[in-house]
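Lecture 7 notes: from sequence to structure.
We start with the chain below.
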Amino acid sequence: MFAAPELFAAAFPICAAYDVPTENMGKVKNIPMWLIHANPDETVPVQYSRDAYKHMQQLGANVLYSEYPEVKVEGQVVEAHSVWIYPLKNDPRTKDGTTFFEWLASQSK
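Predicted structure tokens for the same chain:
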């Protein structure tokens, strides 16, 4: 995404995989973004997503953030890195009730 930001109408980093250098964030600040992570993720530190969200807000980006306290499937707690389950089930919502897929579909170039 950093190499060719003009190709993207939106992005939804799930469990941001690394601590993004702040100089790269300016390249994508005009791409609407929804970051998603689970707090107890032991595979990728949740702080990566928290820091990216904070920095994108400081840049004035159109950014949303959903952080889950745990990940459950049919009532059972599963490994927290499986947080991708929630957006694929259209679970995250904006404050006004817009679902993840509604938000994604509303983005365009």
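Points to note: The mean pLDDT is 95. The longest helix spans residues 46-58.
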